[in-house]
Structure formats: structure tokens, C-alpha cells
Write a structure and sequence with these properties.
The chain is of the alpha/beta class and 542 residues long. The chain is built from 15 helices and 16 strands. This is Glycosyltransferase.
Length: 542
């Protein structure tokens, strides 16, 4: 298949599917069903009306223990598979085992596709071999017809949209604006997936009670998937889903299990010391580089502020043959010390090769002897996550004698995508730069050192927390005292303002009295002057 463009992040717009498609890919529609024969008949009738070629379409109905058993209506080309293991995941896996298509289209037994839905899905799959395409469901409460009507919209409308998917798509620019969890789009009602991706990610997890769709979507993302919402792929869901009826209890059950398997759901991993089935980051260290160097690195990693971490120590552990009579003369003493020191540490795995669980989102490849600071790993992860980077190279040391010594923080999904689209002989890091982004940072800036530190440990962290709480309490008491002092000053200021007003009033009264006295004195002076003048004139005349 010729890929028209390399998708960066989840910005699938570079693919531009062909509106005038010449179909060549086959699709297997897998329908798990438990009872509901009347709805299944409508679903199969809708599949018979699809515009995508019937000769390229395989339909597999999986009866998950219905009583009475499900039957296929006459004239259908569908295959019927019986699966006695209960659960939708088991039923889907049974159908998947029989599927032969280039694309797997999950379809629920109560979802009626509009005629052009599968063709709308397949236009995208002809553009790239690593896509997950989800159609738009509308939930109808209309009465079930005896036969599928010619005008689906007229019969099933008004209907409600799949609100949370519409909201997710709208707030992320159609999932193109570097969304953190695009895999949430993988819902089983009407989603199609490249069979190549399913093979890489593995089948549905049958241990899960709920949340199987999302968990598989996460693994598909880790395998390099790009997630595409397709409004033209429309379908009607016959009635509400179980989650719509009981969202809170459904989420409660789902979250209890998916927390172990989906590291991207950080809010489900708030416990400061728990270990999880799939860690958020695995640090790979060469265990053959000497006991002291290995311990410097591993102990610093385990003492950091990221508890959701595992360490993979590589070395020929299965070949170790200890000599208990002369341990100091053992030529493999350094390996023996590393093996003995970490073999019972739950977050450390001793392995022959550096193969990391593909479900782990980030991998840090770190040379032994280099110790990250307490918050180093957290800062690198923040950088990769916030900027959507596929690779962060860390320059640790450079010299003429040693060359360049570096560490690498790799995003597993970016490297999986790069392996899918890389051409023969093409440098994988260059392809990662195209599909996700690559950067270099200085190790010293991020706190790397060759000096072995003293891990603080939980007791020290506890003491620091207690001291911080005591300091916070002291500062709170001081703030309360200052607030009381401020209140006192405000009350005093109010009294001063009141006194000032009263003084101003008294001064005003005194000024008015003084003015009256001045007027009286002026009148008296005028009277005296007039009287004296009159007396003087009389004397002069006499």
C-alpha cells in the first residue's frame, strides 16, 4: 500500500482519502451477540444494503451462548460462530480468530449502519494501513420495526448523538490538536481497525469485566495507530447503552481494572507507592557495567519522584554459576552482586535482552553510572508529553576519548508508528522526528550526575512532609495573628476616623462662633466709633 503522507501525532488530515475509491481491501465485520434476535435481523439487513462491495465484505456473527441459539436469516452471506465463553471480549476474540479481512470492523448486534457507513470507513483504510476509524452513533428510542425501513432517518429520528464522543472530537479539533488520549475513540459499537494493528496489539483482554474497548484502544495506540472520527459513517443504536443507563457504577467497575493496564489514565494512579501491571515508564540499564555503576543508576531511579516506574536490567543472568567456596575469586562477581542485590526488588526485572512490554508508554535507556536527580525523570516525561515528542535525547558527556554519551527517552507509540511507515534503510530516529518530534537537552540541566547520591527514602520523605506541615501550621498561626492585628488596626483606624470627624465638627462650630464674635466686635467698634464722633462734634459746636 502506498501511504500518501506521514501523520504527525494524530493529525490525519495529511492523508486525504479518495472520494472516488476503487475498492481493493477486504473487511471482516465481527458481531458479538447474546440474544436479541429481532435486533440482529435488522443489523444484518442493514449490512446487506452497504455500498461497499459485498465480495470484499465478510460478516461473522458470534453467538455468545444465547438460549435459544441465534439463527441467520435466509439469504445472508454471514457466518455463524458459537462461543460458549461468556463476555463480549471472548465473543469478539472468537470472531477475530475466524476473520480474514484486511480490516476488522467491530459492530454491536444492536447497531444499524446507514448504507454508506462501511464505505466511509474503508476510504480511510485505503489511505493508510495504521488507522482506527470510528463512526457516529445516534441512539434511538423508536419502536423496532418488523422489517428494516427504506428510510432509516425517517423511522429512527429523533435520536440522541453519542455526546461524549462529539464533545471529545470538538474540543480537540477532530482529534488533531495533539490530544493526550485519542484512543478513547475506540468504541466497539461501530469502529474499524487495520488487521495489521490488531495483530500487533493483540486480541481483547478477556480478564476485564468492563472497559475492554478502551483498553484495546490504548494498545492499538501503542502499536502506532492513528484515530479518525468519520461523520459520514453513521449508524443508529437501537436503544441506550448500558453505560448510558448506569454511568457511575459502570465507571466504578471499569476503573478498578483498567487502572492497572492504561498508564495514560494518570488520575487513576494517585497512590504514591503502588505498583501497576503496566508501568508508566521503564528504565533500561545494562547490568554488566559493574555493581557500583549499576547501583548508582538504579537506586537513583527508584528513589525519584516518579513511583510509577520499573527498571529492566539486562545481562546474562541465566549463565551465572556462583562459586560459594571462593566468592571473591569469582570472575562474574560484579554480575553476581547486581543479580543478588535486585532479584527480589519488585520494580526491577532481570532479563537477557532489552525487550520492554509494548504497553509501556515511555522507555528511558540510561547508561549505568549516571544518576538522575530526584525530579529528573518527571521533568523529562513532562517535556515529552507536553510537546508531543517521540524522542528526547539527553547529552550526558562528550569528549574526544569517550565520544558522545547520551540517554534516550522514547515514546513507544511514536517508534511503533515509525516502524510502520519507515522505508528500507531509513534511519528510525529521523522517521520518529517526522511523525512525532525529536529534541536534545543537556543532562546537567536536567540533574544528571555521576556522583552516587543517598536516596531519601520514605522515612525521610515522611519527616520532610511532617516538617512542612508543622511549618505550614506555624505560618497559618502567624497569619492568623497578623490578621487579628490588622483587624485591631482597622478598628483603631475607624476610631481615629470617627474622632477626626468629631474634631472637624467641633472646629467647624468654633469657627462659626469665632465668626459671630468677630462680627459682634466689628459691630461694637462701629458703634463706639460713631458715638465718639457724635460726642466730639457736639463738644466742638459748644
Amino acid at each position: 500500500m502506498t501511504v500518501r503522507g506521514r501523520v504527525r501525532g494524530n493529525d490525519y488530515r495529511v492523508l486525504a482519502p479518495d472520494d472516488h475509491l476503487t475498492p481493493r481491501l477486504t473487511v471482516s465485520v465481527v458481531i458479538p451477540a447474546y440474544g436479541g434476535q429481532d435486533k440482529l435481523d435488522l443489523v444484518l439487513a442493514a449490512l446487506a444494503r452497504q455500498t461497499y462491495p459485498a465480495e470484499l465484505t465478510e460478516i461473522i456473527v458470534v453467538d455468545n451462548g444465547s438460549a435459544p441459539p441465534l439463527r441467520l436469516p435466509g439469504g445472508t452471506s454471514a457466518k455463524l460462530v458459537r462461543c460458549e465463553r461468556p463476555g463480549r471480549a471472548a465473543a469478539r476474540n472468537a470472531g477475530l480468530a475466524r476473520a480474514t479481512g484486511d480490516v476488522i470492523h467491530w459492530l454491536d448486534s444492536d447497531v444499524v449502519l446507514t448504507p454508506g457507513a462501511i464505505e466511509a470507513h474503508m476510504r480511510w483504510h485505503h489511505a493508510a494501513p495504521y488507522l482506527v476509524v470510528t463512526g457516529y452513533l445516534r441512539f434511538t428510542g423508536a419502536e423496532l420495526p418488523a422489517e428494516l425501513p427504506d428510510d432509516l432517518e425517517k423511522h429512527f429520528e429523533p435520536a440522541e448523538p453519542h455526546t461524549w464522543i462529539v464533545d471529545l472530537v470538538e474540543r480537540t479539533g477532530g482529534l488533531t490538536d495533539n490530544p493526550q488520549r485519542p484512543f478513547s475513540l475506540h468504541v466497539g459499537g461501530a469502529t474499524s481497525v487495520s488487521a495489521r494493528l490488531v495483530e500487533a496489539a493483540g486480541p481483547m483482554d478477556e480478564e476485564l469485566i468492563l472497559g475492554q474497548d478502551t483498553e484495546m484502544g490504548y494498545r492499538l495506540a501503542q502499536a502506532g495507530a492513528v484515530f479518525v472520527p468519520e461523520p459520514a459513517a453513521r449508524a443508529y443504536h437501537l436503544g441506550p447503552t448500558m453505560r448510558m443507563r448506569d454511568k457511575q457504577p459502570i465507571d466504578r467497575v471499569s476503573h478498578a481494572f483498567v487502572a492497572d493496564r492504561i498508564p495514560a489514565y494518570r488520575w487513576l494512579r494517585g497512590h504514591p507507592g503502588r505498583q501497576w501491571k503496566v508501568p508508566y515508564v521503564t528504565v533500561v540499564v545494562d547490568g554488566t557495567r559493574g555493581y557500583d555503576a549499576v547501583r548508582t543508576t538504579v537506586d537513583a531511579v527508584l528513589a525519584g519522584t516518579v513511583p510509577d516506574v520499573s527498571v529492566l536490567l539486562t545481562g546474562p543472568w541465566s549463565t551465572l554459576d556462583r562459586d560459594p567456596r571462593a566468592p571473591l575469586l569469582d570472575p562474574n562477581l560484579e554480575l553476581v552482586l547486581v543479580h543478588g542485590h535486585y532479584r527480589h526488588e519488585g520494580r526491577v526485572r532481570l532479563a537477557e535482552t532489552a525487550d520492554v512490554d509494548p504497553a509501556v508508554p515511555f522507555v528511558l535507556r540510561l547508561p549505568a553510572g549516571w544518576a538522575p536527580g530526584e525530579d529528573t525523570l518527571a521533568r523529562l516525561l513532562d517535556l515529552a508529553r507536553d510537546d508531543g515528542l517521540g524522542l528526547v535525547n539527553v547529552l550526558l558527556h562528550e569528549s574526544d576519548a569517550d565520544g558522545v554519551v547520551s540517554a534516550r527517552l522514547e515514546r513507544a507509540s511514536a517508534f511503533a508508528r515509525a516502524r510502520i511507515v519507515a522505508g528500507p534503510g531509513e534511519d528510525l530516529d529521523d522517521v520518529v522526528d517526522e511523525v512525532s518530534g525529536v529534541t536534545w537537552v543537556e543532562g546537567e540541566t536536567y540533574g544528571f550526575t555521576t556522583e552516587p547520591g543517598v536516596p531519601q527514602g520514605r522515612r525521610s520523605a515522611y519527616r520532610a512532609r511532617v516538617e512542612a506541615q508543622e511549618e505550614a501550621a506555624r505560618l497559618a498561626k502567624e497569619a492568623e495573628r497578623l490578621r487579628a492585628q490588622v483587624t485591631k488596626w482597622r478598628e483603631e483606624a475607624a476610631r481615629w476616623r470617627k474622632s477626626t470627624v468629631e474634631l472637624r465638627r467641633e472646629v467647624g462650630a468654633l469657627r462659626r462662633q469665632l465668626a459671630a464674635v468677630n462680627r459682634a466686635q466689628q459691630g461694637l467698634r462701629t458703634l463706639v466709633s460713631t458715638t465718639m464722633k457724635r460726642a466730639l462734634r457736639k463738644r466742638l459746636r459748644g
